[in-house]
Amino acid sequence: MATLSDVARRAGVSPATASRVINGSSKPVTDELRERVLQAVAELQYVPNAHAQLLARSHRGPVGVIVHDVSDPYFSEITRGLQRVATDQGRLLMICNSYRDPDRELEYVELLRGHQVAAIILAGSGYHDAEFIRLLNGKLAAYEATGGRVAVIGRHEHSGDAVMPDNRRGAWLLGQEMCRLGHERIGVVAGPRVLTTTTDRLTGLREALAEHGRRLPADRVRYAEFDRDSGAAATAALLDAEPGLTAIAALNDSMAIGALSLLRSRAVSVPEQVSVFGFDDMPLARDVTPTLTTIRLPLVEMGARAMALALDAGDGSPRVESLAAELVRRDSSGPPPG
């Protein structure tokens, strides 16, 4: 069995430096040395002393949560679920906003390791970025090797406990509803291209349209940030390029609310002239005018289930919990004009 000295020798560093990297010390270590140590840990399959790690990581220690932006209603609802279970278990949450910056997410993993949190939960979407995935998995593996636990929400390239909202099926339901109503000229306000959530929702929507013999040309898709103003700007771009669109599918509710605002500013009636569809079913979706037709995800439950997984070691094998999506019909959708 490999020892700390073996890891240090393989990495070409002192045992003290190897220990700082493995144990998540707050003392600074250069990225180059950290990568060498983590590579040596992986190559030698080094397992730290579990008893020492458990002494350092209190059973009542805090839980670190990395979200994209807690002010986003999507993450606010997920955080409610996380907080509910954490409070019941007497745990403190450390919430980190990455603002969809992969480098910041990597920095937060190191920061949380340094604080010796009991678990880390990645609550935001995964990324289509091979180098980021490699670095993230290396850091999470080093953290898990010291007794830490990891759970993710959404599709990530990480083997472990996960809560999976059915984004693809939800978008398929959305596409089926638009076809049932008779829409053919459909514009899509998608999220950031780099996120797996965006890919999954676009895939499901395209599959539903294809079943009805309808295509979604690339020029009818606008990628935008998951916020109101970006949704309004993307909707404007779609309508300027093709004024005859009869439906706008925004792949989250914040962007859909931006679409409603833009249409109102142009005196376009919803749904008489253009139908608007959202995704997620934020609480605000019931309060806007017209009320928003959308896809409901159980956001609070997603957070609660992820926290429960993070705090329960189970038998050590990866657990994946899938949560279904459902269509919620409201006033913003109807058949196309004429």
Automatic annotation (TrEMBL):
InterPro entries: HTH_LacI (IPR000843), LacI/GalR-like_sensor (IPR046335), Lambda_DNA-bd_dom_sf (IPR010982), Peripla_BP_I (IPR028082). It comes from the Bacteria. One of its GO terms (molecular function) is DNA-binding transcription factor activity. Keywords: DNA-binding, Transcription, Transcription regulation. Residues 2-57 form the HTH lacI-type domain. This is Transcriptional regulator, LacI family. It comes from Micromonospora phaseoli.
